[in-house]
Amino acid sequence: MQAKQVVKSAFSMPLSSPAYPRGPYRFINREFLIITYRTDPALLRELVPEPLQPAGDTAKFEFIRMPDSTGFGDYTESGQVVPVTYKGKPGTYQVAMFLDDEAPLAGGREIWGFPKKLAKPRLVVESDTLLGTLDYGSVRVASGTMGYKHKVLDTEQVRKSLLAANYLLKIIPDVDCTPRICELVTYNLEDVVVKGAWTGPAALELHAHALAPVASLPVLEVLSSVHLVSDLTLGLGRVVHDYLK
Question: Which pLDDT band, with edges at 50, 70 and 90, does 1 fall under?
């Protein structure tokens, strides 16, 4: 293969069989359980990189079912998110994400810089309860529950909340293990349609784990919960801060 052909073909690794296709990436019937809780503000400040600033003392834990996603297939994801501000404007910062599918794991890390690791999240309905769990190997590290569809929420308000800016710290090492890319990236969800949204009583437990330290932002008080079903497109990212310049 000639050098110019390598450059033309290069998109994802491996060159001869990329781990995921080019976007756009559309998600159909994407289902969320989002539990918002109060945590230690000092620990938030330690985790959130400048120039982002924590927006108060809250964090969110998410369990997400994605049964139909362009190029990525059918998978489940779980993650920890912190409300932040950037230059005074509100957004969210992704602290950690865990999922069970190679294509979105590789694509999320390489394209946007999502902090993804391989694990075993679940989101299911058990009788009258919506249950989200996250296992890292054989160890349960997170468990969230919510009363199933106790109260209907305004879908337009929920849709607007999904349009806020999201921030990621993208880190790609050089061949000598020094950082080649270290950037603050932002992205937005696009063409969002909320098909239903509900709330109810909720509980969240986080457990200590050396390689999945979600409990480093402890649950002091559960504040709210949202269960929603939506169609949306994952917008591509743009760099807002380069830490190496």
Answer: confident
Model pTM score: 0.96
Whose tokens are 């359980």? That residue is 33
Query: pLDDT, tens digit, for every residue of 45-102?
Result: 999 999 999 999 999 999 999 999 999 999 999 999 999 999 999 999 999 999 999 9
242 residue type, one letter: D
Q: Which of 116, 149, 170, 245 is catalytic?
A: 116
Q: For residues 56 and 166, what is the distance between their CA atoms, to the nearest angstrom? A: 17
> Which runs of consecutive H residues, i.e. helices, occur in 48-140?
102-107
Both tokens assigned to 142: 């997170």
Using CA of residue 195, residue 156, residue 38, residue 87, what is the dihedral sign? positive
| Alpha carbons within 13 A on the beta-carbon side of 14 | 2
Rg (Cα) of the chain, in Å, rounded? 18
Q: How far is CA 64 from the centre of its chain?
A: 9
116 is catalytic: yes
